[in-house]
Amino acid sequence: MAKQVVTTICFVLFHCIISYCAFMSSCSVHSSTKNSIPEIARYFGTKGRYEEVNTYLIDDILAINNSLVTLPSSTCHEIHLTAIIRHGTRFPTAKNIQKMRDFYDLVVRNATDNLNCLSEIKSKWHMWYKDEMDGRLVEKGREDHRHLAQRLIRWFPSLLTEDNVRQGRVKLITSSKHRCVNSTIAFREGLMTGLRIDDKVELEPAVNDALMRYFDQCERFVKEVENNKSALEEVKRFSEGPEMKRVMEKMADRLKVPYTSVTDDSVAAAFYLCSYEFTILKVNSPWCQLFDEVDAQVMEYAVDLKQYWKRSYGHDINSKSSCILFHDLFYRLDQVVTHINSDVPVSEAITVQVGHAETLIPLLSLLDLFKDDVPLESTNFATQQNRIFRSGRIVPYTANLLVVLYKCPEGIRMGVRLNEKSLTLPGFTDPVPMYEEVKKRYSALLGGCDQETVCKMNYS
Ligand SMILES: *[C@@H]1O[C@H](CO)[C@@H](O)[C@H](O)[C@H]1NC(C)=O
Ligand SMILES: *[C@@H]1O[C@H](CO)[C@@H](O)[C@H](O)[C@H]1NC(C)=O
Ligand SMILES: *[C@@H]1O[C@H](CO)[C@@H](O)[C@H](O)[C@H]1NC(C)=O
Ligand SMILES: *[C@@H]1O[C@H](CO)[C@@H](O)[C@H](O)[C@H]1NC(C)=O
User: Fold this and answer.
1) What is the pLDDT of residue 457?
2) Number of structural domains, the chain?
3) Which is deepest, 3, 35, 103, 438, by most CB within 10 Å?
């Protein structure tokens, strides 16, 4: 009996090894990974998973890593947290779903399945994305926010307390987009679970697009950048340049289709298929086998270039469009400081604001963060290999900017973290400077940067 079991196990094991080897060699592009994480996952840019930025979360999603954070001296204690958070993992937009469908059809109809990953796509994969999924939050996206809330409780145990929730000292603000509203609701669930509050507590998110989608309401940004093709000229040049051309040709060679059949939309669609299958379903899909590492770096650069010109340092108005959110932040912090200085209890211990990658990037740029010495351009892909402006590092799903105020014997200090890692503000050496020094550093913005003025068309 026992012998038979052992034999069976050996037999099964043998077959597993054989199939595994077959899988390993399934595509000649590059060898497959041992695990379910695509080798190119760190190049997904704004379509990237939060866990790729903090890999210790892969083993324990509720872990916090203290070695990534610098605290002020132990004589200080936290008095306020503002968290500005991107929504969680979502479905592709309807526009991108169409591109994915077109590319899938090309592979099924026209590609020659000499590569096993192609036969895998043709025989096992089906186009399951539907137009109505259009940008909605997926279950993983809800988990992203529930887990972030639970980690924030561990990071800030004296602020995220049951008492603060019950006394209305926690505020939730969100963009009106369904993926943001649903992220905020998931965040609240995580908060309630983490604090073991199981009765109904009044904690309704307030929708505020003037703050969380300020970019729609800044006329100058809309006219000069959003609706202006020539504002993204560098992005277009790169998509027609030699690096992207090479990615398209390699893709056509792999599919054995004429070069004219593969466009920049096709390679973008293939890259989406790889990234969405991974972030939504947690699988390393055969689509990922259509890219090698250099291809993925080119795709990443195309995304970063677009973010740079549309949301960041490419045009001055991009960051200036966030003036309203910048002022809202400092107004909030000032109020806390006023309360502390006059010995009145702080009325807002935690402010959570849920928005978009497009909410965070301009604000970070306004603060002069992640600014390379040389601009990102269509012609400098090669020399920008070590750039600090990397959207996948800065704004993966559930990206979060955490601004913390501390009360110390010498006064109020301010700490900033992005994605649960301390940041030192440009111009400072101390990662937790005095709040008044921070205000001095940004005094020009605090004294100006008026939304109405900067967003007017005739302003210069
Ligand atoms: C915390 O982060 C550091 C630096 O990235 C890393 O070396 C360490 O392994 C992490 N700690 C844990 C517990 O994963
Ligand atoms: C938001 O979440 C609710 C409940 O979880 C769900 O029924 C609804 O479809 C979600 N909306 C979107 C747009 O994802
Ligand atoms: C469009 O962008 C270009 C390049 O930045 C700029 O020169 C031009 O003035 C913009 N057009 C409008 C209508 O703002
Ligand atoms: C795919 O092949 C068909 C013929 O089988 C052809 O008509 C069509 O143009 C091809 N599509 C592309 C995008 O190359």
Assistant:
1) 84
2) 2
3) 103
Mean pLDDT of the chain: 92
In which order are the strands placed within the sheet that holds 170-174?
A: 206-207, 170-174, 350-355, 77-86, 400-408, 411-418, 421-423
- Looking at 315, 344, 360, the residue that finishes a domain is 315
Residue bearing the CA closest to ligand 4, atom 4:
110
Strands (E), 121-247: 170-174, 206-207
pLDDT number for residue 1 = 44
Q: Is the CB of 224 under 6 A from ligand 3?
A: yes
What token pair was written down for 76?
């200080």
Domain that holds residue 97: 92-134+229-315
Q: How is 178-201 classified by DSSP, letter by letter?
A: HHHHHHHHHHHHHHHHHTT--S--
Residue count (the chain)? 460
Q: Which two tokens stand for residue 315?
A: 């045009």
Question: Could you give the residue numbers annotated as active site?
Answer: 87
End position of a domain, from candidates 264, 287, 315: 315
Same domain for 303 and 327, yes or no, is no
For residues 390 and 435, membership in a common domain is answered with yes
Report the C-alpha gap between 111 and 266 in whole angstroms.
Answer: 13
What does the block give as tokens for 340? 């502390």
In Å, how far are 166, 331, 347, 353 from 335, measured between CA atoms? 21, 6, 9, 17
Ligand 2 pocket, mutate which of 182, 183, 188, 189 (most atoms under 8 A from CB): 182
CATH number for 369: 3.40.50.1240
- 356 with 450, same domain: the answer is yes
Distance 324 CA to ligand 1 centre (A): 36
User: What is the residue type of 91?
Assistant: F
Record the pTM.
0.92
- Residue 459, pLDDT > 70, answer no
